[in-house]
Amino acid sequence: MSISKNDTNEGPSENYEGLTWRQVNHQVVLNHRLQSKQAKLMEPVRTDVLTVTPWMAPIVWEGTFDPLVIDETFRSHNLTIATTVFAVGKYTHFLRDFLESAEKHFMVGLDVHYYVFTDLPGDVPGNITLGLGRLLSIVKVPKFDRWQEISLRRMELIQTAIEDHIYREAHYIFCLDVDMRFHGRVGSEALGRLVAAIHPWFYMYPRSQYPYERRTVSTASVPQDQGDFYYQANIFGGALEDVHRLTKTCREHLEVDKSVGVEAVWQEESHLNWYLVKNKPTKLLSPEYVWDDAKRGKAEEIKLVRFSSVIKNKAEVRENP
Ligand code: GAL
Ligand code: MN
After folding, report:
1. Any idea which positions bind UDP-N-acetyl-alpha-D-galactosamine (predicted)?
2. What's the structural domain count of the chain?
3. 96: domain range?
């Protein structure tokens, strides 16, 4: 990685219509004499799973990083991680467990600014104790009639929130689903310019079977012979500038689709996947980072479930089938 003046935390940066992105220093400097385990070239830590993509992006699995080393690397950068979560309608019920578990496991030791997007500010639990350096803001959003619309509108709302204020306040942003719970560490090992997580239900299948949008009338269409991994939209993130470009592109494509009366099969997740076929993520999170409580049975490769979808009664929390 080249080191230039622009790589410092304070330095100037590229512009998007007047927005100045906060820059991150990517240099790895360890100040303390950490007794980390020696990395042995001839003894790979994981031989059961892919740990690097064909375009040389790491895939984060338990065992591939040393939490002490990675924490030490990032601590000195004084980073703020904006974290968006949408709790519309009855989804506010999920907020307490989401936030309480995030306080135990999510980016512990870093500054986190949660942005809770909701139509019901009064239903956001007020008595959750946040750690030092951690904040919560409520962003009032309209409620759309269908859950599909609520879901896909997130791209637009995240884009707008980045442009309105988040760009000034954070170095990284993570966009998370609320009907989830943290069970294990999700920390600075997950930070990167463009980060996405591999869907827990499809990683063993050939790409022709991924649930991409296939209809060519949609801007999210992916041909049978393309695609790397199928990503779940429940967690994605990265540097503000990169996530802004992603949300803006997806929002534009969602609008084009809407104008011709098409809605992609998995709404904004289909557009996210299209985007990531064209713009490869710089870091991938293994399905440890986006597990599903409904997934039972053996998965030897999953040594640790970190973040997982809770089992919900869809009829009860959604507005429509
Ligand atoms: C489901 C998940 C959806 C979507 C879908 C893709 O398991 O609940 O949100 O990701 O897989 O097929
Ligand atoms: Mn969800």
Report:
1. 86-88, 91, 177-179
2. 1
3. 57-309
